[in-house]
Amino acid sequence: MGFVRSVDFARLASLAQQVVTAAQRRLPPEVRAAAQAVPVCYEPHPNDGILAEGWEPDILGLFVGHAHGGELREDHAPLPPQILLFLENLWDYAEGDVEIYRDEVRLTYLHELGHYLGWDEDEVTRRGLE
Fold it and tell me: Which residue ranges form the domains of the chain, and what is each CATH number?
């Protein structure tokens, strides 16, 4: 596809969904089921609530909620587990190059999936999920 200067959000979301689905298919079976159970939400940018928590406005993705297998605390009502991908930030990061965008969506998704699974950066790398 190559270099494209502008693209609408629907196109970014469609590309991202294709990338996430393909990434899930390549996961080891013991991880695939957990990956398919956590919703992936596609947003243009982080919302005001995320920014108020101190995240940078150019963040590419974020895992929110309790980790897979984690316990919910009764005194706390967290969001349900979900992976957020900020597509316009990813597009800006890729500087409008579709192939770079696809690669960054995949890397960001796998990174956030690792957080959902309770893995740190080293564990994500060791498992070959980057």
Answer: 15-67+79-126 (3.30.2010.20)
Token readout for 95 is 């500087």
DSSP state of 97: B
Q: Which two tokens stand for residue 45?
A: 């940018």
pLDDT tens string 26-77: 998 888 999 999 999 999 999 999 999 999 999 999 999 877 665 555 545 4
Q: With beta carbons less than 8 A apart as the criterion, state whether 38 and 69 touch.
A: no
Spatial CA neighbour of 65 closest among 78, 76, 84: 78
- Could you give the maximum distance between any two Cα atoms of the chain, in Å? 50
Answer whether 86's CB lies under 8 Å from 60's CB. yes
Contact 111, 103 (CB under 8 A): no
Residue 19 CB coordination number (10 Å): 20
